Amino acid sequence: MSAPLGNKEAQNGQADMDIGALYRNYRGYAFSIAYRMLGVITDAEDVVQDWFAEMQSKDMTEIRDVKAYLAKGITNRSLNVLKSARKQREVYVGEWLPEPLVADYDSPERTLERQDVISYAYLVMLERLTPMERAVYLLREVFQYDYPAISEMLGKSESNCRKICSRAKQSLNSEEIRIDGHPAPDQEGKRKLIERFIAAFERYQLEELLELLSEDAVMITDGGGHTRSAIFPITSRKRVLALLTSPKAFKELRGWQAVLTEVNGEVNLIFVKKGQLKGILCLQMASESNRIQHLYLLLNPHKLNHVLA
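The structure corresponding to this sequence follows.
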């Protein structure tokens, strides 16, 4: 987690850091901020690369706290990206889901990122916030900056930042989703439940699916207009069951190989056809029962290009 502006421990030895060391030490941290802000891996990587490219011409001796300076730069660049992204999402076909981080999407420089994961359900939840609410909430609640630091980063008064964070918390309080960065509960139990779910789904087993879904189950599918998907969220167990057991729905999905894989730090499902990733299904369990409450099915091929299956 980050230190507030002016923290002496954070400053030690940073003035003489070259760009290579800066990249090695802070690339993962920069990506974790950008990915939480944007929910799009390629956009997050572009923001990070642009920031480090800019740093090549900077005099690092002028920067008293590199980590806070990075957080400020990455957050504000992400806010600029979100402004244009919001307009694009207004004309997006159907529901828009964030891009997940799949375990096979790997490189040596992602070691830090894998230690600092965000659950997919939590990432979806953040989409309910305005860009500024998202920025203030993440900087305060996830990256643990104090309000004076956030005020300086975003160019807003401390009192305004407090109000923005309060609004964000109120928007998110109704969601029973684990806190970002905390270990996911009982992954072995979830693995067994998913195995039961996929077996029942492939065999149209209504009674088994009825047992696995919570009464307030919601399914969101994202095809982006490129593949067939529901335009609006499917709400209630009855409607989700009708969709999952329909002979006409998900014909191709049932023919693909379902593989249990770590997605955003939790066990979930990917669907593969002849070595090519075709879909990702993330499941969120209800907090009060061992049943599936949210189903997020990503089928848009443009959001799957970054994953190597």
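The longest strand covers residues 213-222.
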